[in-house]
Amino acid sequence: MNSLRLRGGRRLKGQVEISGSKNATLPIMAASLMSMGEVVLSGVPDLEDINVMSMALEILGAKVKREADVLVIDARTINNYELPESISRKMRASNLVMGALLGRFKRARVAYPGGCAIGVRPMDLHLKGLRNLGYELTEEYGFMEGKAQQGIMGKEILLDFPSVGATENIIMAATLTPGITTIRNAAREPEIYDLQNFLNGMGARITGAGLDTVQIEGVKKLGGVEYRVIPDRIEAGTFMVAAAISRGDVFLGNVVLEHLQPLIAKLREIGVEVIPKSTGVRVIGNHKYRPTDIKTMPYPGFPTDMQPQMMALFASIPGTSIIVETIFENRYMHVQELRRMGADIKLEGRIAIVKGKTALEGATVEATDLRAGAALILAALFAHEETIISKVEHIDRGYEKIHEKLERLGVDIRRV
Ligand SMILES: CC(=O)N[C@H]1[C@@H](OP(=O)(O)OP(=O)(O)OC[C@H]2O[C@@H](n3ccc(=O)[nH]c3=O)[C@H](O)[C@@H]2O)O[C@H](CO)[C@@H](O)[C@@H]1O
Ligand SMILES: C=C(OP(=O)(O)O)C(=O)O
């Protein structure tokens, strides 16, 4: 198992190129299963989660080839609609093949997904939505099994909560289901909009993604497409916070500023200078930050995937900042590790009270999940002495070559 050794105290300086979005690529890869042509994806990040999704597609019978940041997927030959537990358990996003397989075969058998220990993460909203379309869904022996009933037909579906994955699974199944499906209270994340654009590129008829009502007119068949995925807004956000916490000066290339608005607003409130440029964004830190509050919400609210990183930043700002985590009930695993580094954080249910300090101390800590690991890297940039972060495999799920990118910005970091 890998660890990262990181010596804090340096101001980050220079330029970093943001990779393609993990959370956009994963549903797009799943949706490729419905294509009767060749899918060529570019801007695909080199990440463990992407490798797992590639394996899932291959197990289902697709051919997947990778060259640099381009992935070529040929699903014309797939003949299997069952995803075994050995692969499903490796990550939460494996559940996204469900909607695609139902669309393509009108049958699917998918073992319950695994993923980070940030909450229970049930599948009820996915299954309820798919049932509404006329698919019969059963849950037995650790599998979700679906098949089309007579006369499946697009419908009005009202999601009880704007779940990202449920919205994506329903969009995919509805794409190859006759009639018109309308999803109300749909998730509005940029990754949903990217999925819509990708599917429409293959011949789907979807409108409204990015708003709370998405309409899908079922088509009979999808063809091939060449498509570039959007930049990763969470990787970008993490590097923005890295610039801020190290009181550095960093230019980020390959970003979509609109996707970063909830974070930019908070960074500016704190006193971080965020300067949009035509080819990216420049972030300049200083020593006069003010504490603030965040409440995680579905997009365009503040993203839960940036909550741990903001907690690290708050721990470096004298005064009291408050965090309310409303999306995942167990997304405070990083608190205990940040405390080892001297952070003063109290938890009251879903509320975290962070009393910032002028210094943190290096320690031996564990990345308990992906963004918790990112928060520890950020805290380590601010800490005196050396921090050793174990279980880096969690961080590698979502950050492409993170130690190399940080090293180029002047961080004293080693992978051991
Ligand atoms: C691969 C990917 O894109 N992952 C992202 C996706 O996860 P994911 O799609 O799993 O997140 P959801 O939006 O579905 O989950 C949000 C909340 O809804 C609950 N829920 C969800 C589905 C369901 O059927 N029942 C239910 O109760 C979850 O337990 C959670 O508390 O969106 C999350 C919220 O922005 C992000 O943190 C993840 O990084
Ligand atoms: C929670 C995340 O991913 P996943 O949904 O794949 O667990 C994340 O990207 O922060």
From TrEMBL:
GO molecular-function term, one example from the UniProt record: UDP-N-acetylglucosamine 1-carboxyvinyltransferase activity
InterPro entries in the cross-refs: Enolpyruvate_Tfrase_dom, Enolpyruvate_Tfrase_sf, MurA_subfamily, RNA3'P_cycl/enolpyr_Trfase_a/b, UDP_GlcNAc_COvinyl_MurA
Reaction(s) catalysed (UniProt annotation): phosphoenolpyruvate + UDP-N-acetyl-alpha-D-glucosamine = UDP-N-acetyl-3-O-(1-carboxyvinyl)-alpha-D-glucosamine + phosphate
E.C. number(s) listed in UniProt: 2.5.1.7
GO CC, alphabetical: cytoplasm
CDD domains: UdpNAET (cd01555)
Binding site for phosphoenolpyruvate: K22, N23
BP GO terms, sorted: cell division; cell wall organization; peptidoglycan biosynthetic process; regulation of cell shape; UDP-N-acetylgalactosamine biosynthetic process
Pathway: Cell wall biogenesis; peptidoglycan biosynthesis
Keyword list, A-Z: Cell cycle, Cell division, Cell shape, Cell wall biogenesis/degradation, Cytoplasm, Peptidoglycan synthesis, Pyruvate, Transferase
Chain positions with 2-(S-cysteinyl)pyruvic acid O-phosphothioketal modification: C116
UniProt enzyme class: transferase
UniProt entry tagged with the keyword rRNA processing: no
Gene3D superfamilies: Enolpyruvate transferase domain
Catalytic residues identified in the record: C116 (proton donor)
Intracellular or extracellular location(s): Cytoplasm
Ranges where the Enolpyruvate transferase domain occurs: 7-406
Transmembrane feature ranges: none
Cell division recorded as keyword: yes
Residues annotated to bind UDP-N-acetyl-alpha-D-glucosamine: R92, R121, P122, M123, D124, L125, D305, I327
Functional note: Cell wall formation. Adds enolpyruvyl to UDP-N-acetylglucosamine.
Family: Belongs to the EPSP synthase family. MurA subfamily.
Name recorded for this polypeptide: UDP-N-acetylglucosamine 1-carboxyvinyltransferase
Organism field: Syntrophomonas wolfei subsp. wolfei (strain DSM 2245B / Goettingen)
Classification of source organism: Bacteria, Bacillati, Bacillota, Clostridia, Eubacteriales
